Amino acid sequence: MLWNRNRTLWPMIAAPIVWAVHFCLTYWLGASSCAHLGSATPARIGIAIVTAIALGLIVFLGWRAWLRWDYRSDQDYVHDGPTTEDRRNFLGHAGWLLAMVSAIGVIFVALPAVFIRSCI
Amino acid sequence: MTDRNPQMHDIPDEEIGPQGIYPPTEEMLNEPVDPALQEAQRERLRAVWKQPQGWRYWSAVNNSEVGLWYTLTAFGFMLMAGVLALLMRVQLAVPDNDFLSADKFNQFFTMHGSAMMFLFAVPMFEAISILLLPAFLGARDMPFPRLSAYGYWCFLIGGIFVMGSLLFDVAPDSGWFMYPPLATKAEGPGSDIWLLGLSFIEIASIAAAVELIVGVIKCRPPGMRINLMPLYAWYVLVVGGMILFAFPPLIAGDFLFEMQRSFDWPFFDPERGGDPMLWQHLFWIFGHPEVYIIFLPSIAVAAMIVPTAAQRPIYGYSWIVLSAVGTGFLSFGLWVHHMFTTGLPSLSLGFFSAASQAVVIPTGVQLFAFVATLMVGKVRMIAPMQWIAGAVAVFTAGGLTGVMVAVAPFDWQVHDTYFIVAHLHYTIFGGMIFPIIGGIYYFYPFITKKKMSERLSRISFWLTFIGFNICFLPMHLTGLKGMPRRVYTYPGDVGWDVLNMISTVGAFVVASGILVFTWDLLRPKRNQDLTERNPWAAGTLEWAHDVPDPGWGVRSVPFVRSRYPLWQEDKIVERMDAGRFYIPDAPEGLRETVVTSAVDAVPQHVGRITGPTWCTIVAAIFTGGGFIFPTFHMYTPAVICALLAVTAVIWWLWTSTAQIPEKPMKDAGLGLSLPTYVSGPKALGWWGVFITMFGDATAFASLIFGVFFYWTARPDFPPEGAIHADPSFVALAAGLSAGSWAATRIARGVNRRGAVKSAQLLLGTAPLLAMGAAACLILSVQLAGLDPTSHVYPAMMWALVVWTCAHIAAGVIMQLYCLAGSFAGKLTPRYDADLWNTTLFWHFLGLTCLITAGMIGLLPRML
Lengths: 120, 863
What we know:
Helix content of chain A: over 70%
Shape of chain A: elongated
CATH superfamily of the domain at 705-862 in chain B: Cytochrome c oxidase, subunit III, four-helix bundle
Number of strands of chain B: 5
Oligomer: heterodimer
Strand content of chain B: under 5%
């Protein structure tokens, strides 16, 4: 089953889901703050908060994926065996890589709020 | 090994779970199969998978036939759209030309873009996947063959309708993204043809996506765990998921747009509170992922060719999975980069600019993984590999200009100029056409058991590659010099004439290359010998297919233990041929495939799949009527057609799906006995409903997005003193729909426990409650006097009601279907898949009803 703990794809894509939620919130904060309050400051504060939360979550998910990858014990990064171990390590490896990309994505998307201070 | 389902506790274990030995031992695999038995099995399989002869050929639903028609049809539309491009290039070759009128030119560029996107690129992915995926997975067929056939016929009818409008001079002419107010105010049926014709095709696309996702998740061969899946399957999974999130917003947008065109509901009319920007958002939430939806599957073809050319496994499998999944996600954060010049706050632009830069990372990883594989392998420059190399070069160039236009200030300079035309053709031609042609050269021996010509491939490649660059490289400059796209002519004294002439010459060189390819593809090859079985010495399962093709896909479904079974597992082909593996026989005379668990591919069930039929064509024709008649405002025939389509689909489901098997278990081979009927999350149908409803929920979410969009963007949403929906009717609707939902869910449990009469009572009550809910929803807006033509606020409330009621209608049909099944003995306590699927549908529908009630009853009073 897709949901059972060790037989599931969800942890692998959890970090990109965090990225997606962060992206939607960032966009919504920017748009509504500019449209309704006429100032970017509330949006920038809100974005700082959601970015911190998102990065925290991604670090946590990435760490979990790193454990599942279990690279340090066997230095294996191919995972092409027909075993539960290989499948688990593979999902961990892919999840860890996705966590890295998601973290970069979150930081990228938050950067405009650092540099742009107005609603123009 | 059985992942038991808690709800199934009342059924004795021996009736539901797989029994016997899994995984098989080496001795079992080594044991020879009696040659006489092999021959008898072959005969039976051949009879079951025999394709219909004569005119009945068109009733085939097998993936190899449907996939082939689909591919050729999409290719035919591509050629037509290509001819339109050539005609436009002729018009633009010299300044002040009058070869085409402005109006014709508008129709041509609109149809060129629309056809390339909707009639070629996306359908081509589906077509190729339908054709190849079962073979990659060692499966006999797709999980829902009739659904593929239905999708194909819808595509064909819709495509002919949309393209045919060109012949009557009424084709859509507002550009392939149909911006309002130009498109809403356009005269003639052009915009309606676009909206309804393409919505029709989009539904076919979603059907294909559902089928492909279920295929990848549930139809892998035993042992092919998720870490062993061919990369193509990963891409199909990602792209199928993307289609489910990208197409529904467009369908929701089409729904609003058509309501404005037909009934004057002012969604995009600023004078009555509407906003044309909503269309741009919905369109590009679809439109940008769309680019990746067509790019990823093509690069997936490359991911199958590169290891074969390098004669070694792909380098960085996990990295490619990362890049496919990562690109799939990030590509949804880019849509506003098509809208940089619409005056959004620069803060908002910044987010999309940043995401547009970030998507380069996974895309780049993908290309580097290919290059690394080629570097560490011994490359044979086979013809397909040449096309892939061309693809990588052209796509990378397009990617680099993509990074440039992702920077908002640069985009402001070149927006809507030929620079963009150059950029998008570099990405799409490089990311789609080159790999697809390479893929056709590569897979042609698999599809037809003949070979295309190596020499013609090289001629075609160089003509296309050189012609492409002659045509599109100068366009960057034409754009930088300020030539806007979509103008039908230009004056001679602004320095654009030489560049345009070069582009036109290049376009004809490309056309000659494509023509050579087309000739090579279609030329008769009757006298040619059949190819050998694995002509490229590849490592994946599709090359295990027999030559000539007996139609059964695989002789027996293998037990797989590696990523490249043909390279890494001795004797696998021999054992497949001997029928040593799973379901080597068809004693019941039924088409079957092995259904396995989602992640570890543990065998769960022998899935019975459907065979040749005319009902898919009938259903497609009437579905077409339901979409095509409204284009001409002929609503009565449209309604009749829609009802007939529903009837045809019900007949199709009733006569061929969830049939009670002749025995509960069957011997699947290798000492394993599998159930012949499962319900709930182990069943293919359940997954089909689940995934479809995911897409449907996305469309509904897009409508909700619309409400919040208006609230954010417009000061008068809801307007001062607006009339709101009647709260008591809304509350009643919420209560009744929740009641219907609960009755359906309880009916499932009660039925499972054997209380058939109580279940029937509940299933009889549930539709009444649901119909009551629909009536209350309508009354809540009708009695309160919300006039949808007066302002966008009542229009939006009405749109939510219409959407929800249409779904309630479907929910009621499903409840009645189960009730009828229960009376007819088709649905019993043991065989209750339909009820599981209906309950699942109602989980989504119940939530939809409650959210709609909240949106029309509560939210406006709080805003």
